[in-house]
Amino acid sequence: MNIKIGLVSVSDRASSGTYQDRGLPALQEWLQRALSTPFSLETRLIPDEQPLIESTLKELVDRCGCHLVLTTGGTGPALRDVTPDATIAVADRLMPGFGEQMRQISLRFVPTAILSRQVGVIRKQALILNLPGQPKAIAETLQGLQDAAGATIVPGIFAAVPYCLELIGGPSIQTVDTVVKAYRPKSATTGA
Q1: Nearest CA to 102 among 132, 69, 63, 67?
Q2: How wide is the angle at C-alpha 121 spanned by C-alphas 116 and 124, nearest 5°?
Q3: β-bridge mates for residue 98, sequence order
Q4: 3-33, pLDDT tens digit by residue?
Q5: What is the pTM of this model?
Q6: pLDDT for position 155
Q7: Of 73, 166, 182, 187, which has the most beta carbons under 10 Å away?
Q8: What architecture is domain 3-190?
């Protein structure tokens, strides 16, 4: 089964053409390096408007059939940062561990990471994750942090994404282990 992934960059300035969006290219580049399973993308660049974010997330899951939706931008405490609010509004279930892990990774770099309101949710049989807005932070959040020898210091959130998708009835995703090794419990891989 071809995996369909929705990518949404939420930015007033980039969507109006004030500056070039860097979130969508960063997400696309990382996914191309990280996934060995074929996938197709649906991309959207939209302003920080909660009704529009909600309708975009619903469209990607309900009409386009995306199994995974990754958003970037609009996750801080500013009044215009409403991506988490829109994501929660369309959710069937919350997945708080994703937001907790994203903040753990970012706290390694900046104390203001505690201000992030990133969330993970399930809508129908799709996983929606809010990622940071900066390309470097996007890659770190997805991939995790490694030492100079390549050993994992802090796991990235994408290690849990393939198993989560399988648990909610989505397709199986295989990753490139040198980028991010997908975690599946032994019982899931041996049938025990």
Answers
A1: 132
A2: 160
A3: none
A4: 999 999 998 888 888 888 999 999 999 999 9
A5: 0.94
A6: 87
A7: 73
A8: 3-Layer(aba) Sandwich (3.40)
